[in-house]
Amino acid sequence: MTHFKYLSLLLLFVSQIGVAQAQPKPLDPDLTKYTYPFPVHFHSLTVQRQAVKMAFMDVKPSTPNGKSVLLLHGKNFNGAYWEQTAKDLSKNGFRVIIPDQIGFGKSSKPQNIQYSFQMLAQNTKSLLDSLGVKQVAVLGHSMGGMLATRFALMYPETTEKLILENPIGLEDWKRWVPYQSIEKWYAGELKQNYETIKKYQLDNYYGGTWDPKYDEWANVLAGWTLHPEYPKIAWVSALTYDMIFTQPVVYEFSQVKAPTLLLIGQRDKTALGKANARPEDRALLGNYPALGKEIAKKIPNAKLVELANVGHLPHIEAYDRFLVPLLQFLNSK
């Protein structure tokens, strides 16, 4: 065998191993076989006459600075994707609290409740109360940005600072996108698989370039689709899509009292239901460079940091560029 043929076969073998490692494994609705980066605890709640458990991680610093940060995940994620953020915040003295919202991650996923941002905010406040946390900086990404805004509006005395990382809900999609039933959202979710999930994330999150570090967050969602109980996940996902679509916060940004940092990846084009809008409207939705500027003007005490050539997940795609302004803002007076 020539050296060239041997090298070619070796490269093929290595690439096949990489493909095999990237494939998702079936995951149950509560992610019991998926390991989070920090110990997971559970906060018991009663929501609409149902007993539920809210999973959370509580990362305590070795040298506390007396401040706490609450990290709120996006719709297609769970608290685990905050791992590096939590480690660096903890190194800088912050206590970091990372919940999985009801309906997400390792938390309970009730099938027959009305999901609302107010309910999720109340659950989160209950968690903070149980931990004795009276004030907190609230950082929300994507859907977590909508929740963080609602939390800040409901609990201004608790919200010391607000950080919105590529939040969705900066525009009211109902104005341009036809409403679709929860059953239709459910039917769409049942069609999800690894290929569709990765394609969506590739096109909408990462600008068409895939990095192996993105595999984790596609594989968790795809792992659910491989489990016999996936319809349970799909139904809750449909319910929370309806929550996001019908409960905008965009009209209330002027009422936010907390000092606010907007971290906006400029390549992001995320907009719920964009494919269902008229072509002439579709092209205008999810314009994050323009939306970031508009929202920064509406929030009384806001600072806008624009991250050029970064998409929907700055803390995954361009971590250092995300962390530096975050720490500067958290440490500012």
Estimated helix fraction = 40-55%
Total beta strand runs: 8
End-to-end CA span? 68 Å
CATH architecture assignment name of the domain at 35-175 and 248-331: 3-Layer(aba) Sandwich
The main sheet orders its strands as 1-2-4-3-5-6-7-8
The rounded Rg comes to 20 Å
Number of DSSP helical runs: 12
Per the CATH scheme, the topology name of the domain at 35-175 and 248-331 is Rossmann fold
What is the string of SSEs from the N terminus onward?
HEEEHEHEHEHHHHEHHEHH
Structural class: alpha/beta
> How would you sum up the global shape?
globular
CATH superfamily of the domain at 35-175 and 248-331: Alpha/Beta hydrolase fold, catalytic domain
Mean pLDDT comes to 94
Unreliable stretches: 1-21
The proportion of residues in beta strands is: 15-25%
Major sheet attributes? 8 strands, mixed
CATH class of the domain at 35-175 and 248-331: Alpha Beta
